[in-house]
Amino acid sequence: MGRAGIRIPLVLWSLAVLYPIIWMFIGSFKSNGEIYANPWGWPESLNMGNFVTAWTEYNIDTSVFNSLIVTVVGALLTLFLAIPTAYAIERLRFRGSQFLFTLYVSAMMIPMVLGWIPLFFLLARFNMLDNIYGLAIVYAVSQLPFTIFVLTSFMSTIPKSLEESAAMDGLSPYGVLLKIITPLSMSGIITVTIMNAIQFWNEYFMALIFLQTEENYTLALTIDFISSEAQYTNAWGTLFASLTIAIVPVIILYAIFQQRIAKGMTEGAIKG
Amino acid sequence: MVQSKKQKYLFLAFCLIPTFIMFSIFTLYPLFSGLYYSFFEWSGSSENKEFIGISNYIQLFNDEIIPMTILHDYFLVAAKVLGIMVLALFFAVALTQLKIKEAPFYRIVFFFPNIMSVVVIGILWTFIYNPSLGLVNSGLQFMGLEDWTRPWLGSEKWALPSLVLPSIWAGIGLFMLMLMGGIANVSKSYYEAAEIDGANEWQQFWKVTLPLVWPQIKISILYIVITTLNGSFIIVQIMTGGGPNNSTHVMGSYLYEQAFVQYNFGYGATIGVMILILSLVTVLILQFFMRRERVEY
């Protein structure tokens, strides 16, 4: 096979990936007239009007803020729960640790959509329906199995002698967890947290079910709302601007942590 | 050890109990009570919750839309497994075996859609399929293929196949990376030996690469099947909402409609049980058929 020939599909696929994203980005600077006149063309000027409309008329600022809260609270809560559990399962080896691990890990394979119906009523009973903190808790728990799975595999590489000598020096088990294990697992903790954060920032369906009023919408819901409005108002430029707002933080994260994200995702995927 | 047994158990409890409680409340309990709900007729308010035995299941078997949704789900599974595995394998081999300088660039670009929100992907592709403004139709016009243009997502015949492309577009990078990981672990000496035996690149691919990355291929297929059966309804919900005329409804989007639009929560739960059973059975069957002895090194 010729080396030049093999490049053709590679170039074509990168165009297929990049072009729609760049097109969306360019579209966010175009007026509706320009989009209709030539959907493929360049904007006449760097017009920020679409961003202003998205920001003010559709209250994207509130949604960005909600998404940030859900993402940060969700990611921190996941860690708070998962680190001690992963430590106990992987390093303390008590009776039933294998069972617990299997229980958590097999939850990754189960379709949760069945559980969302009772969860809806459960949240209503806890007064956490239509509440971004309620959503953050649900998110955090939904990523627990994956997080525990990734953290146990990171923790398994820490030498046992470290904990033993720390315990000899009189460090309590809480101290060992906090001062030895957590810092040494930091690379795994960061990786899994970035991935969870991306997950929470992007999530759509649970937000659709559990949130109801517009002021509680996350970014995903607001974009969906703008999109369904655009079918009637044809405000495509505004829609592109809101898509751009949603995707820029992810691009930045990806640019910084590209290697980690790719590695973590593939490790997490190998679970079936 | 300085610590007593009691302290040790206290510490274990500290580590395990909060997680277990949260997991039980927000994962285990909803799953089991979902099962329980499937025996009720229930529109959401507590007064009218009525035990109806297996009536929901009888309704499920007589519901004309259910077989359609199952068929649509498995259509998406088959199309995604085929599309993603062929392309991902091709890209993985191209980026590892052939010495291409810009390989890291392709790796980064191809993976990027994997971290994009499904909402962004869905809306972007809805616009790409837009009959008058979208890239697909204007591209076809540009190439002089006016006859091929159509309202992709508005056509009962084309809407479901149209959903395959965004799913492949968004999913390929992850599996490419997984397969690249597998290929990277294959020792160079096998290729050298194959070359000495006179095998060309094509034969090397079939005889060396493919058998040795079989574990990664198997896991990838399983993973695509699970995630599609458990989550294909999200892209459906965003791009078509199950329409036109139910032609894109999958099991999950039908559950959403029954439970959260029509307020038939009991029947929705019954559909959920069906999804659970079908996806577990599918995984078991797949695992049985993909058992293949590991290649001995």
From TrEMBL, chain A:
Lipoprotein in keyword set: no
Entry-linked CDD domains: TM_PBP2
ABC transmembrane type-1 domain location: 64-257
Cellular compartments annotated: Cell membrane
InterPro entries the record matches: MetI-like, MetI-like_sf
Domain of life: Bacteria
Residues spanning the membrane: 7-26, 68-89, 101-126, 132-155, 176-198, 235-257
Keywords of this entry: Cell membrane, Membrane, Transmembrane, Transmembrane helix, Transport
Primary site of residence: membrane
Name this protein carries in UniProt: Carbohydrate ABC transporter permease
A Pfam family hit: BPD_transp_1
Family: Belongs to the binding-protein-dependent transport system permease family.
Membrane-protein topology: Multi-pass membrane protein
Signal peptide: none
Organism of origin: Halobacillus amylolyticus
Keyword Cell membrane: yes
UniProtKB/TrEMBL annotation, chain B:
CDD domains with a match to the protein in the record: TM_PBP2
PROSITE patterns: ABC_TM1
Positions of transmembrane segments: 9-32, 74-96, 108-128, 158-179, 221-240, 260-289
Keyword Transmembrane helix: yes
Keyword Cell membrane: yes
Keywords noted in UniProt: Cell membrane, Membrane, Transmembrane, Transmembrane helix, Transport
Its membrane topology: Multi-pass membrane protein
Protein name: Sugar ABC transporter permease
